[in-house]
Design goal:
By secondary structure, the protein is of the alpha/beta class. The chain has helices at 16-29, 47-54, 80-85, 96-102, 106-118, 131-135, 139-150, 156-161, 180-198, 200-205, 216-223, 240-249; strands at residues 5-9, 37-41, 59-63, 90-93, 122-127, 163-166, 207-211, 230-233. The protein has an eight-stranded parallel beta barrel with strand order 1-2-3-4-5-6-7-8, surrounded by six helices. The longest helix is centred in the C-terminal third of the chain and has 19 residues, at 180-198. Bound molecules: 1,3-dihydroxyacetonephosphate (13P). 1,3-dihydroxyacetonephosphate is lined by residues 9, 95, 167, 172-173, 211-214, 232-236.
């Protein structure tokens, strides 16, 4: 049985004051939820404030990115120990915006995943095809390449414990959500690939989130799919009532 996970990716939105105001309003809205994990990923400047406000609650905090080295001359980067110190329990790795806007490749994603696991945190590893790749019938090949590269060297137990977010690039921030059937097809493919590399038991335990224009109105239909274990939400997670509604409707049953 996989515990559903609903995660908010705020991207480059919210100051400390705005993030704290969100959290103050949001926590009471989801206080009764005990059958799902809820994660907020603020920008790194607000991570400590959000994690602090969530301490003792049923909501966890995530970093949106991390560097794979422990320390050193890497201007502008943050280490795993730093985000852990700020209170993060999860780290988003390999988001398509990191891949496409900042040139992150599967080798970098793999280094980051290993650093997060070595530090005892949970990576949320993002994969997904572009529109051109989908139209060229390359979706399965792209997902396989990103999985094989990003998860290289992981044990079956590690694969069982990580979280994977399927985020088709054409659905991110476009209002064009994958249909529940498209999401299920991709998730079933991903789980099959995980089973091939790590065994069915690990694949059955690994949680697969869908991301890309998830809204209160479509969260339930996506969550009803057998291989969709939750959601990674961008725009619709910026408002506490909207994200609380997604938590309410987007829990697979
Ligand atoms: P939107 O929900 O804004 O489409 O963003 C999805 C996403 O990229 C979450 O990581």
């Amino acid at each position: 049985m996989r515990t559903p996970l609903l995660a908010a990716n705020w991207k480059m939105h919210k100051t400390v004051a705005e993030a704290t105001a969100f959290t103050t309003e949001f926590l009471p809205l989801v206080a009764g939820v005990d059958d799902a994990e809820i994660v907020l990923a603020p920008p790194v400047t607000a991570l400590a404030a959000v994690a602090g406000a969530c301490r003792g609650s049923n909501v966890a905090a995530a970093a949106q990115n991390v560097h794979w080295e422990a320390r050193g001359a890497f201007t502008g980067e943050v280490s795993l120990a730093m985000v852990q110190d700020a209170g993060a329990s999860h780290v988003i790795v390999g988001h398509s915006e990191r891949r496409h806007l900042f040139g992150e490749d599967d080798v970098a994603v793999n280094r980051k995943v290993r650093a997060v696991l070595a530090g005892g945190l949970s990576p949320i590893v993002c994969i997904g095809e572009t529109l051109a790749e989908r139209e060229a019938d390359e979706t399965a090949a792209v997902l396989d390449r990103q999985l094989d590269g990003g998860l290289a060297g992981l044990t079956a137990d590690e694969i069982a414990a990580i979280i994977i977010a399927y985020e088709p690039v054409w659905a991110i921030g476009t209002g064009r959500t994958a249909t529940p059937e498209q999401a299920q097809d991709a998730h079933a493919h991903i789980r099959g690939r995980l089973a091939a590399v790590a065994g069915q038991r690990a694949a059955d335990r690994c949680r697969l989130l869908y991301g890309g224009s998830v809204k209160p109105a479509n969260a339930a239909a996506l969550a009803s799919q057998p291989d969709v274990d939750g959601a990674l939400v961008g725009g619709a997670s910026l408002d506490p009532h909207s994200f609380a509604e997604i938590v309410g409707r987007g829990r697979p049953r």
